[in-house]
Amino acid sequence: MKDFLKNILWPTDFSRESQEALAYANVFARTFDARITALHVAPDLSLALYDEASPALQQELILRMDVSTRNAQARIQGIGRKRRIPFKKIVVTEGSAAKKIIQTAEKEKADLIVMSKRGQSLVEKIMIGSVANHVLRHSPIPVLVTKKRKQKFKVKKILVPTDFTKKEEAERNIAAKLAVGFHASLTLLYVLELFGQEFRLVDEMFKAVLDKFNKKKERRGVEVTKEVIKAVNAPQGIVDYARRRSQDLIVMTTCASPIGRLFLGSTTEKVISSTDLPVFVVPPKFC
């Protein structure tokens, strides 16, 4: 399991939410013997250097950028010392936060991005455009979207929503690795929507999935249960079930069609917007 996660990227803007995300990153790092790379993205001031500013003002901007970079590095080092987290590397750069997060993840060969989902207003829940949503849609590696929690983060129960598509095999594979690492149980959940499949057919599909799941030796010892519930829509059914059954982590994919994600928002994005739980998101590259 040590090869599952080696390098975890933790982007921070020094907000309370991003620092809470570090606690999640540290739990994953300790569980899978991984290291954490810290990233801070500052606004890009380089364009101001090429405007009609005087040479003196340009020099002042350069000095300010240098000071800002050094201050950010020192601040991250301080966070690491306070939490006793020896960062593998500290990266401070400038530009678009979402783009730099993805670029850094690729350059540093990260296996997981751990970041908070900021913004809980009604408009922010409906509209797409936040840093977290951009990263979710474009990241080539899994993303753990964290939430503020009063209790210490632990993973004993992992919820894996399913609709029995072939693409979800990758989701179940990663969920199984997480379950082995955390010594957690897995629940495969199917939400029977108002006009969904019959229970008998769902049972047959579940049997095929579980038979395939249990054939792999590395999954031995993982407790797996199946659940079928009724709900008006899948996202709300998933969120309600996770809350009622005190789940610790939800594992989902972003394998919806590009058009569906663009205009309607994927089921995963809707769950992230509504749930109080962290969501481990598997990108299309793994599907």
Q: What does the secondary structure layout of this molecule look like, with pairings?
A:
Blueprint: E1 7-11, H1 16-32, E2 35-42, H2 46-49, H3 55-83, E3 89-94, H4 97-107, E4 112-116, H5 122-126, H6 131-138, E5 143-146, E6 157-161, H7 168-182, E7 185-192, H8 199-214, E8 224-230, H9 234-244, E9 249-253, H10 258-263, H11 267-274, E10 279-282
Parallel strand pairs: 1-2, 1-4, 2-3, 4-5, 6-7, 6-9, 7-8, 9-10
Antiparallel strand pairs: 5-10
Number of domains: 2
Number of helical segments? Answer: 11
Termini separation comes to 20 Å
What is the CATH topology assignment of the largest domain? Rossmann fold
**Count of β-strands:** 10
Residues in β-strands, percent: 15-25%
Question: How would you describe the overall organization of this protein?
Answer:
This protein starts with 6 loop residues before the first strand and ends in a 5-residue tail after the last strand. The protein has two domains: 7-146, HUPs (Rossmann fold), CATH 3.40.50; 157-286, Rossmann fold, CATH 3.40.50.620. Helix content is 45%, strand content 20%. Residues 119-129 and 258-264 have low confidence and may be disordered. The chain has helices at residues 16-32, 46-49, 55-83, 97-107, 122-126, 131-138, 168-182, 199-214, 234-244, 258-263, 267-274, and strands at 7-11, 35-42, 89-94, 112-116, 143-146, 157-161, 185-192, 224-230, 249-253, 279-282. Helix 9 (234-244) crosses helix 11 (267-274). The chain is of the alpha/beta class and 287 residues long. It is elongated, with a radius of gyration of 21 Å. It has a ten-stranded mixed sheet, with helices on both faces.
